[in-house]
Write a structure and sequence with these properties.
GO terms for molecular function: hydrolase activity. By secondary structure, the chain is α/β, with parallel strands linked by helices. It is built from nine helices and 14 strands. The protein has one domain: Metallo-beta-lactamase, Chain A, CATH 3.60.15.
């Protein structure tokens, strides 16, 4: 469904069947000489059909169109190879997320390691259901963007902004004169972006909170999000997200008063705003995302010295320091 949300800026709402996110907002910015698509949907026939309908409705010539991927998650990047084959010119990523998108074997190895940490069966590592689409096999050629790069489209001058946290290389686009910001999954209305674990060497939750503080400083009238509604008061929503994570950390510390927990045991004990009442009833994908979020918060508490990480019998436990 195509909607003009600002002059020459269109939102193409692409349904994500059987996914709690419901839909992704792919944006299309048009100008006389060049167009830009921001994010794509999963690599599924359903997403490709809806994306194509929107492009055809706007009579988009892919030979004078570029694609920007805000981050490597497959609901944002899945159709990049298909669009490239259809004629899209440059595909833009951050270097970090572009490499993650292409490094299939390395990514699979990381997922298998996470399964061991979570206590899930290794052969379930990538079983998220057909609704998540198929993944890239051949590497995708992309043009890396860094903070401060500019993309000029008609009257608009978009600046690339680094906003890591939801993924390590998440980027956004800021239009200073019109006070517009395309933020991908960095800030969402009504739902909270998943902040997962990306390795023991980094405190990804702290990275995310720092990026929220960075975005708070920007003058923004329209925050174009990748899911749900466009946000008009980004500062109010950022305060709500910061408070949410503070409550999450307090919840985890309270749960740990009862004793050491693994990441998945912590996730099972935490409150989640989902329809399933029992952890056992969660679909595998939701268990995965919940465990990843629990682990990122546990690791943040380890980094600030409030929780210990204990390696016992090849299993990781977290507990209050004695």
């Amino acid at each position: 469904m195509i909607t003009e949300v600002y002059p020459n800026i269109f939102k193409n709402e692409i349904p994500l069947p059987k996914n709690p996110l419901k839909a992704i907002n792919s944006y299309i910015i048009i100008s006389e000489n060049r167009n830009l698509i921001i994010d794509t949907g999963f690599n599924t026939e359903e997403c490709l059909t809806e994306l194509t309908k929107g492009l055809e409705e706007l009579n988009i010539d892919l030979k004078k169109t570029d694609l920007l991927i805000t981050h490597m998650h497959t609901d944002h990047s899945g159709l990049a190879p298909a669009l490239k084959k259809s004629g899209v010119q440059s595909i833009y990523f951050s270097q970090i997320d572009g490499d993650l998108f292409n490094q299939t074997s390395k990514r699979d190895s990381f997922y298998h390691t996470l399964n061991q940490i979570f206590g899930f069966k290794t052969d379930n590592s990538l079983r998220f259901g057909k609704e998540f689409g198929t993944r890239l096999v051949e590497p995708l050629e992309f043009s890396p963007l860094i903070e401060g790069n500019e993309i000029i489209l008609g009257d608009y001058c978009f600046e690339v902004v680094d906003i890591p946290g939801h993924t390590p290389g998440h980027i956004g686009l800021y239009e200073r004169k019109h006070r517009l910001f395309f933020c991908g999954d960095h800030v969402l209305d009504a739902i909270t972006p998943n902040i997962s674990f990306w390795g023991f060497e980094q405190d990804i939750l702290s990275t995310y909170l720092n990026s929220l503080n960075k975005l708070y400083q920007y003058e923004i009238d329209y925050l174009f999000t990748a899911h749900r509604k466009i946000i008009r008061d980004h500062q109010k929503r950022i305060i709500e997200l910061v408070n949410h994570h503070e409550e999450r950390l307090k919840e985890i510390l309270l749960i740990l008063q009862d004793g050491k927990k693994t990441a998945s045991e912590m996730a099972a004990a935490m409150h989640w705003d989902v329809s399933h009442k029992k952890w056992e009833d969660f679909p595998h994908s939701q268990k995965w995302f919940a465990s990843g979020e629990a682990l990122s918060h546990l690791e943040h508490l380890v980094h600030i010295g409030l929780v210990d990480r204990i390696d016992k019998n090849e299993k990781l436990f977290y507990g209050i320091p004695e």
